[in-house]
Amino acid sequence: GQVLLRRAREHARPAAVGKVDLGYLFLPRAWGHGYAAEACGAALGWLDGVLPGEPVVLATRTANARSLRLAARLGFTEVERFRAWDAEQWLGLRPATSA
């Protein structure tokens, strides 16, 4: 699998522009073992250490229930829903943390 943190310079949604964007992708055989939660949690912990107080966004399909549960566990809350890539998408925000 992979986890990506990048500055969202251009994004489908204005609410994401300029914020750090968290992305992840795991093969189906890795689903359900907690790898994404562990990897994303570690990436966000690292980010909090190097850029304290930085808000983070995450986008996923609303049909991806596992990804939505992961987003909630990681502290993301819904900002908006929108349509892209022929499906409804969910945009979440993890607010700025205390430095």
Q: Architecture, according to CATH?
A: 3-Layer(aba) Sandwich
The helix count comes to 2
Global morphology: globular
Strand/helix succession? EEHEHEE
Give the total of domains: 1
Give the structural class. Answer: alpha+beta
Largest sheet: 5 strands, mixed
Stretches with pLDDT under 50, minimum 5 residues: none
Find the CATH superfamily.
Gcn5-related N-acetyltransferase (GNAT)
Helix coverage percent: 25-40%
According to CATH, the fold-level topology is Aminopeptidase
Beta-strand segment tally: 5
| CA gyration radius, whole angstroms | 13 Å
CATH class identity: Alpha Beta
Strand content: 25-35%
| Major sheet: arrangement of strands | 1-2-3-5-4
- Termini distance? 30 Å
Q: pLDDT average, as an integer? A: 91
Describe this structure in words.
The chain has 99 residues and is of the alpha+beta class. It has one domain: Aminopeptidase, CATH 3.40.630. Helix content is 25%, strand content 34%. The protein has helices at 35-50, 65-73, and strands at 2-7, 20-25, 56-61, 77-84, 87-94. Strands 1-2-3-5-4 form a five-stranded mixed sheet, with helices on one face. It starts with a strand and ends in a 5-residue tail after the last strand.
Outline the fold blueprint:
Blueprint: E1 2-7, E2 20-25, H1 35-50, E3 56-61, H2 65-73, E4 77-84, E5 87-94
Parallel strand pairs: 2-3
Antiparallel strand pairs: 1-2, 3-5, 4-5
Brief summary:
With 99 residues, this protein is α+β, with helices and mostly antiparallel strands. It has helices spanning 35-50, 65-73; strands spanning 2-7, 20-25, 56-61, 77-84, 87-94.
